[in-house]
């Protein structure tokens, strides 16, 4: 049943996409690439299909799913209204890594998709395979990230296989995803829109289009109940405890030396610029500090890679919290359980 089509691209026609679309119409679940991370798609109209997503991922049932569309024209039928700020965001960022929360239209998807909420998150992904698949299936597609719940989101088909082999009908392999972290989730139902999850589109970019927005305060402190149900769960944590540490590589190396003297096996999440400075049990570079999008792109692959070594602790460099850096630091803080050294 596995569909493995290495590096599907715009130039090819899509033989496997037709098969994947057929699976979706038969209420099976299929993983597919988007520009952010791989998604695990199902027919959003079918409770049976949507239940298979929760089952395969081991996802808590109170965590709602994003509905993916292949074309803007699909939107009006799915939501009660599209206000002016939402219109502007759509114009500026769709297709792209921005999920917008609307009041949902009644009776158009399974209640399981929205976990009983009266709002729904909608996204038009900027990926030729995702768009072709959704259009061909001709359905709204509910799709969370295609990882086991709690694991880093998958940025390659291999990550999906590692987590979900035998649990889903198939996977369309479009190569590594581009952005590397998930979409930004923004609630546009309030007068002042609220960012519920930082992601591929930055707060600065959003504010340049619609003016001031808020950011769910819980995301910054790590305390309390976030407005987005999914943000309350532990996520992305590697097997060994991860710690964040500010300061120069030389300062971090001093700590690594101390821990190794205590007999601990230590991993370091470094960058292309700093990797040569460290001496530790494992040093993995995660993109270039001069080009933060490359850090976002590598982050989940690097977090997964640490599990291949038997480590007692991992220390990570930290990144500036602007632009995509906000999303990078949000994911690193979650992976570290907000532990700092
Ligand atoms: O980039 C992405 O968004 C990827 C790709 C596959 O599109 N999808 C993704 O989905 O990250 P998921 O399910 O892993 O994360 C969706 C997040 C969760 O934190 C969920 O709680 C939140 O969006 N969410 C979904 N619907 C919501 C709603 N109606 N109100 C508030 N939060 C919502
Ligand atoms: Mg997820």
Automatic annotation (TrEMBL):
<dbReference type="GO" id="GO:0005737">
    <property type="term" value="C:cytoplasm"/>
</dbReference>
<feature type="domain" description="YrdC-like">
    <location>
        <begin position="14"/>
        <end position="201"/>
    </location>
</feature>
<keyword id="KW-0819">tRNA processing</keyword>
<feature type="binding site">
    <location>
        <position position="59"/>
    </location>
    <ligand>
        <name>ATP</name>
    </ligand>
</feature>
<dbReference type="GO" id="GO:0003725">
    <property type="term" value="F:double-stranded RNA binding"/>
</dbReference>
<keyword id="KW-0067">ATP-binding</keyword>
<feature type="binding site">
    <location>
        <position position="143"/>
    </location>
    <ligand>
        <name>L-threonine</name>
    </ligand>
</feature>
<feature type="binding site">
    <location>
        <position position="68"/>
    </location>
    <ligand>
        <name>L-threonine</name>
    </ligand>
</feature>
<feature type="binding site">
    <location>
        <position position="63"/>
    </location>
    <ligand>
        <name>ATP</name>
    </ligand>
</feature>
<dbReference type="GO" id="GO:0061710">
    <property type="term" value="F:L-threonylcarbamoyladenylate synthase"/>
</dbReference>
<dbReference type="InterPro" id="IPR006070">
    <property type="entry name" value="Sua5-like_dom"/>
</dbReference>
<dbReference type="Pfam" id="PF03481">
    <property type="entry name" value="Sua5_C"/>
</dbReference>
<feature type="binding site">
    <location>
        <position position="183"/>
    </location>
    <ligand>
        <name>L-threonine</name>
    </ligand>
</feature>
<feature type="binding site">
    <location>
        <position position="197"/>
    </location>
    <ligand>
        <name>ATP</name>
    </ligand>
</feature>
<comment type="similarity">
    <text>Belongs to the SUA5 family.</text>
</comment>
<dbReference type="InterPro" id="IPR005145">
    <property type="entry name" value="Sua5_C"/>
</dbReference>
<dbReference type="InterPro" id="IPR010923">
    <property type="entry name" value="T(6)A37_SUA5"/>
</dbReference>
<feature type="binding site">
    <location>
        <position position="145"/>
    </location>
    <ligand>
        <name>ATP</name>
    </ligand>
</feature>
<dbReference type="GO" id="GO:0005524">
    <property type="term" value="F:ATP binding"/>
</dbReference>
<feature type="binding site">
    <location>
        <position position="123"/>
    </location>
    <ligand>
        <name>L-threonine</name>
    </ligand>
</feature>
<dbReference type="Pfam" id="PF01300">
    <property type="entry name" value="Sua5_yciO_yrdC"/>
</dbReference>
<dbReference type="InterPro" id="IPR050156">
    <property type="entry name" value="TC-AMP_synthase_SUA5"/>
</dbReference>
<feature type="binding site">
    <location>
        <position position="236"/>
    </location>
    <ligand>
        <name>ATP</name>
    </ligand>
</feature>
<dbReference type="InterPro" id="IPR038385">
    <property type="entry name" value="Sua5/YwlC_C"/>
</dbReference>
<dbReference type="GO" id="GO:0000049">
    <property type="term" value="F:tRNA binding"/>
</dbReference>
<keyword id="KW-0547">Nucleotide-binding</keyword>
<keyword id="KW-0808">Transferase</keyword>
<keyword id="KW-0963">Cytoplasm</keyword>
<keyword id="KW-0548">Nucleotidyltransferase</keyword>
<feature type="binding site">
    <location>
        <position position="119"/>
    </location>
    <ligand>
        <name>ATP</name>
    </ligand>
</feature>
<dbReference type="InterPro" id="IPR017945">
    <property type="entry name" value="DHBP_synth_RibB-like_a/b_dom"/>
</dbReference>
<dbReference type="GO" id="GO:0008033">
    <property type="term" value="P:tRNA processing"/>
</dbReference>
<feature type="binding site">
    <location>
        <position position="36"/>
    </location>
    <ligand>
        <name>L-threonine</name>
    </ligand>
</feature>
<protein>
    <recommendedName>
        <fullName>Threonylcarbamoyl-AMP synthase</fullName>
        <ecNumber>2.7.7.87</ecNumber>
    </recommendedName>
</protein>
<dbReference type="GO" id="GO:0006450">
    <property type="term" value="P:regulation of translational fidelity"/>
</dbReference>
<feature type="binding site">
    <location>
        <position position="153"/>
    </location>
    <ligand>
        <name>ATP</name>
    </ligand>
</feature>
<comment type="function">
    <text>Required for the formation of a threonylcarbamoyl group on adenosine at position 37 (t(6)A37) in tRNAs that read codons beginning with adenine.</text>
</comment>
């Amino acid at each position: 049943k596995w569909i493995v089509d290495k590096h599907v691209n715009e130039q090819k026609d899509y033989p496997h996409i037709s098969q994947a679309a057929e699976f979706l119409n038969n209420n099976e679940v299929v993983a597919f690439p988007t520009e952010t991370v791989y998604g695990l798609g199902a027919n959003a109209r079918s409770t049976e299909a949507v239940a298979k997503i929760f089952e395969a991922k081991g996802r808590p049932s109170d965590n709602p799913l994003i509905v993916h569309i292949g074309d803007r024209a699909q939107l009006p039928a799915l939501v009660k209204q599209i206000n002016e700020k939402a219109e502007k965001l759509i114009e500026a960022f769709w297709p792209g890594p921005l999920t917008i929360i609307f009041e949902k239209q009644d009776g158009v998807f399974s209640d399981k998709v929205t976990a009983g909420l009266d709002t729904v998150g909608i996204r038009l992904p900027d990926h030729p395979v995702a768009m072709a698949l959704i259009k061909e299936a001709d359905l709204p597609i509910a799709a969370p990230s295609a990882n086991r719940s709690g694991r880093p989101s998958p940025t390659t088909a291999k990550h999906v296989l590692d987590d979900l082999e035998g649990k889903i009908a198939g996977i369309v392999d479009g190569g590594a995803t581009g952005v590397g972290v998930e979409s930004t989730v923004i609630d546009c139902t309030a007068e002042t829109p609220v960012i519920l999850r930082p992601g591929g589109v930055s707060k600065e970019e959003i504010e340049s289009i619609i003016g001031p927005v808020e950011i769910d305060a819980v995301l910054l402190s790590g305390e309390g109940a976030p407005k987005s149900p999914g943000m309350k769960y532990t996520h992305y944590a590697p097997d060994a405890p991860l710690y964040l540490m500010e300061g120069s590589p030389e300062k971090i190396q001093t700590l690594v030396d101390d821990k190794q003297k205590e007999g601990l096996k230590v991993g370091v999440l470094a960058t292309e610029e700093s990797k040569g400075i460290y001496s530790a049990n494992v040093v993995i570079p995660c993109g270039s500090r001069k080009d933060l999008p490359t850090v976002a792109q590598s982050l989940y692959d690097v977090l997964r890679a640490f599990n291949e070594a038997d480590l007692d602790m991992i220390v990570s460099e930290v990144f500036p919290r602007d632009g995509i850096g906000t999303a990078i630091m949000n994911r690193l803080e979650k992976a570290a359980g907000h532990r700092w050294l």
